[in-house]
Amino acid sequence: MEEQRPDDERDWPESEIVVPLSAVEHYSYCPRQCALIHIEQTYEENVFTVRGTLVHERVDSGSESVERGVRTLRSVPVWSATLGLRGKVDVVEFPGASPYPVEFKSGRRHGIHADLQLCAQAMCLEEMFGVPVPRGAIYYHATRTRHEVRLDDRLRQLTKATIDAVRTMLASQHVPPPVNDARCRNCSLHDVCLPEVVGEPARLRGLQGVLFQVWQPESADYPSGDRGGQACTSS
Ligand code: SF4
Description:
Layout: E1 19-20, H1 21-29, H2 31-38, H3 47-59, E2 64-67, E3 70-80, E4 85-94, E5 100-105, H4 113-129, E6 135-140, E7 145-150, H5 153-172, H6 190-193, H7 195-198, H8 201-214
Helix pairs in contact: 1-2, 1-4, 1-5, 4-5
The structure holds iron/sulfur cluster (SF4).
Iron/sulfur cluster (SF4) binds next to helix 2 and helix 6.
């Protein structure tokens, strides 16, 4: 079942919408998760988000240092007017002429979702510094590994397509239906998303039927003493 907003909330000019960098990864993982966070402003803590917060506390200091001759900036604001993007990069290193973005993730590697976010960050840096950014890295705290990502044409095209898809979704204010698959198991939004309920139309119709009965308090169809459930008789 798809959720829609009223018409008067769906008339934002799409071209003026600036996409948050984090939305690129969220959309790649699950479009509904992206919509719940960036349209509905929903946020739920779970063990994974708490771990993420702790990992980012180390890099969210906005500090600058030089380590082994490499200048390193932390929590760097970035943007791209061309792509309509804004956000932060956890760490930007300068091993040479090109900036080298590093994104920190609390968990372990799952697919290319984080690669897309990293690629979007790199394209922001390219526009800001006027130099190519051919590589970046993602540090996975759970495995203490640093995974280098080559920002090739294929990844860039996929990233741009994802940015466009996020912008279209934000403009529509439309929340897609749940994916209701293995991704939901570790999703922090599981309890507000209700993928098993919303993702099964028949089950949802059954629950709506129960609610409908509850909201017919004086219906002549109900025998006296039976109002279709306990909830409507308790107050
Ligand atoms: S619970 Fe599943 S469908 Fe819902 S937002 Fe999370 S991943 Fe997407």
